[in-house]
Write a structure and sequence with these properties.
Layout: H1 2-37, H2 42-85, H3 91-116, E1 120-130, E2 140-141, E3 144-145, E4 156-157, E5 162-163, E6 178-191, E7 202-218, E8 226-241, E9 248-263, E10 272-287, E11 290-300, E12 312-322
Helix pairs in contact: 1-2
Length: 323
């Protein structure tokens, strides 16, 4: 229907152009005949030519206007033809396509994050030192044995040597303040941008188990066994890791909670001492999901545990596996 109307409009415009072109020629022919049958003065002849020129100019303006209108109609016809060549897109279909693209992008992002393997299990070891002197003063007294041939032979009495103090006659000095340690832990990724405050800065939760050994002294003359002074540390800490996406990544622990278990127990037979941990370190991705790193940590407790202080420093390296 639209095409029929356009065709009729084009035909009408062509007839109008033809009529406008013929009319000036007919008027000029009639004017020529009038001049032959009725001679006029020179002044009247000039006026007639002037009037004819005015009519001709007006007709040319109309022709230009019609031509412009025709060109506009031709442009509209071209646009309609081009529109007929393009597929018609339903708005609902466009929304569905947009949702599909969004879902695909979300899936791709989830896949890339899953493939990044931000979590890590690590195994560590190194050197440890008690910062407040040696791990002496344990106050454990070995039982004395009644000599044979006397009353109560073979029984235990309250006498004996005080194990682990600087005055221990069997040791001659306090238990060492230096120790070695080994342990394991894992990092679990919580956030990739420090909760929206810093791009590329990851927040992780670290769980750690460490074993420290300070000394292994022989007290065979009294108890017949060695006494090993050691300590077990369980810790849970937030870890802030920088430069996400890079092979080299430094990190720090602003503050974490730890529980220290000492052996032998204190003079009051207490073994647990809670405290805090602060740390810093870095790791490097050497191949695929294998990392090597190093760290330094400070372990702090507000008070000793019945005379036994568990404050200290650990420094060493670790091997990590991403998962």
């Amino acid at each position: 229907m639209k095409k029929t109307k356009l065709a009729l409009g084009v035909t009408t415009a062509l007839f109008a152009i033809a009529a406008a072109t013929i009319a000036p020629e007919a008027a000029a022919h009639a004017s020529t005949k009038a001049h032959k049958h009725a001679p006029k003065k020179a002044v009247q002849t000039v006026e007639t030519h002037t009037s004819s020129f005015s009519h001709t100019s007006s007709s040319n303006a109309k022709v230009d206007a019609l031509e412009a209108q025709l060109q506009s109609m031709q442009a509209e016809i071209r646009n309609l033809r081009a529109a007929q060549g393009r597929p018609v897109v339903d708005p609902d279909t466009a929304k569905v396509q947009e949702l599909d693209q969004w879902m695909n992008s979300v899936k791709a992002e989830g896949t890339s994050k899953k493939g990044a393997k931000d979590n890590m299990v690590f195994f560590r070891g190194g050197y440890s030192r008690a910062t407040n002197g040696s791990r002496g003063g344990l106050g454990i007294t070995s039982p004395g044995v009644v000599a044979p041939g006397t009353a109560g032979a073979g029984t235990l009495n309250a006498g004996g040597a005080n194990i682990g103090t600087s005055g221990d006659p069997l040791v001659g000095n306090a238990i060492d303040s230096d120790a070695w340690y080994f342990g394991a832990g894992f990092d679990f990724s919580l956030n990739d941008n420090l909760f929206g405050m810093m791009h590329g800065t990851e927040v992780l939760a670290e769980l750690l188990v460490d074993y420290k050994e300070y000394s292994d002294k022989s007290y065979s003359a009294v108890t017949g066994q060695n006494v090993t002074t050691n300590q077990l540390t369980l810790a849970a800490s937030p870890k802030i890791k920088f430069l996400k996406g890079h092979d080299f990544r430094p990190w720090l622990i602003p503050a974490g909670f730890e529980m220290n278990v000492i052996s032998p127990p204190s003079g009051a037979v207490t073994v647990l001492n809670p405290g805090m941990m602060f740390g810093a370190g870095a790791d490097y991705k050497v191949w695929k999901d294998i990392y090597v790193g190093a760290d330094v940590r400070y372990h702090y407790t507000a008070d000793d545990i019945d005379g036994v202080d568990t404050d200290g420093i650990t420094a060493g390296g670790y091997l990590g596996l991403g998962f």
